[in-house]
Design goal:
With about 325 residues, the protein is α/β, with parallel strands linked by helices. About 30% of the residues lie in helices and about 20% in strands. Helix 2 runs parallel beside helix 4 (about 145-160). It binds flavin mononucleotide. The site of flavin mononucleotide has 27 residues, from strand 6.
């Protein structure tokens, strides 16, 4: 039992603490169970699920950069039917809320996925990924157009009674207009940010390092971009934000909460240290205790509120 109040809400989803995983960096959770107490997480956000199985992009799909990873996985996954039949029941056994990340090539596929997952009591919330930088259709092409973001969100909401989170792309000039479109479409929450479009060159081969040519940059390098987007968006919409992008420590997570995120996601941080999520859960709680807060709500958005009111500390 936590000594301070750490619970947060994303629509009707209650998380006992603000920490979840970034889709695609934690498998279904089962792959991490040896390293992580899955019951201790606020929620598990699983790898992106599509209607049909996908084998992903050409190899190589990952390359290191000085302060992060460039990946072009291409939403490799076994498809929603296998997920529901084989994977979901095993993850559900841990009794931690499960957020299912969904993606489609066509807008209609998001509706169909929502319909299929609606029947699954073990699914606590849906996260519509309209921001994958590594797929030929759907993905980022949707997430950079406010009208399409509105349409996808509305469609998923029409087919689901579960909380709907929309995961946005940082590869836009005006994140607030996209966030507002998702909110108008009925989103219960936002996830900010997906990876940042990038490129790496293989000097030996004298060509792009990734099979897909371009990839998504994640890890500490993108933290300032993510923080900026959370800070701007939190002031512009009423719905809660799951902030992520480069969080590798509890201090990073506290900064995201202060910027206006209601919850945080850990992605590339899991690759650096598989126990990162656990350290972040404990670190946030300890920070609240050490600083005399009795509820995590007290620090959510404190940075932009202090800035607005001309206050420090
Ligand atoms: C290997 C890898 C796979 C990913 N797969 C997905 C995915 O399936 N769906 C999705 O919405 N985001 C996916 N992402 C993006 C992450 O969820 C996250 O938004 C991004 O990596 C930024 O967070 P980070 O800097 O903490 O990693 C993936 C990222 C990585 C590195």
């Amino acid at each position: 039992m936590s000594k301070v109040k750490t619970a947060v809400k994303i629509g009707a989803l209650t998380m006992k603490n603000p920490v979840t995983t970034a889709s695609g960096t934690f498998g279904s959770g089962l792959e991490m169970r040896e390293y992580v107490d899955l019951r201790k997480l606020g929620a598990i956000t699983v790898k992106g699920t599509t209607l049909e199985p996908r084998s992903g992009n050409l190899l190589p799909r990952c390359t290191e950069t000085p302060s992060g990873t460039l990946n072009s996985i291409g939403l490799e996954n076994p498809g929603v039917d296998v997920f529901v039949a084989d994977i979901l029941p095993q993850v559900a056994a841990y009794e931690t809320p499960i957020i299912v990340n969904i993606a489609g090539s066509e807008i209609t596929e998001y509706g169909r996925l929502a319909e299929i997952l609606e029947k699954e009591a073990a699914v606590s919330a849906l996260e519509a990924n309209v921001s994958c930088p590594n797929v030929k259709s759907g993905g980022m092409a949707l997430g950079t157009d406010p009208d399409l973001v509105y349409q996808v969100t509305k469609l998923v909401k029409e087919h689901s009674s579960k909380p709907v989170i929309v995961k946005l792309s940082p590869n836009v000039t005006d994140i607030v207009s996209i966030a507002k479109a998702a909110a108008e479409g009925g989103a219960d929450g936002l996830n900010l940010i997906n990876s940042v479009l990038g490129l790496a060159i293989d000097m030996e081969k004298k060509r792009p390092a990734l099979g897909n040519i371009v990839g998504g940059l994640s890890g500490p390098a993108i933290k300032p971009i993510a923080l900026r987007m959370v800070y701007q968006t939190a002031q512009a919409v009423e719905i809660p934000i799951i902030g992520l992008g480069g969080i590798v420590s509890w201090q990073d997570a506290v900064e995201f909460l202060m910027a206006g995120a209601t919850a945080v996601g850990i992605g590339t941080g899991n690759f650096l240290d598989p126990a990162t999520t656990m350290k972040v859960v404990d670190g946030i709680e300890q920070y609240l205790i050490d600083n005399g807060y009795d509820d995590v709500q007290d620090i959510i958005g404190i940075a932009w509120k202090n800035q607005r009111d001309g206050k420090d500390g």
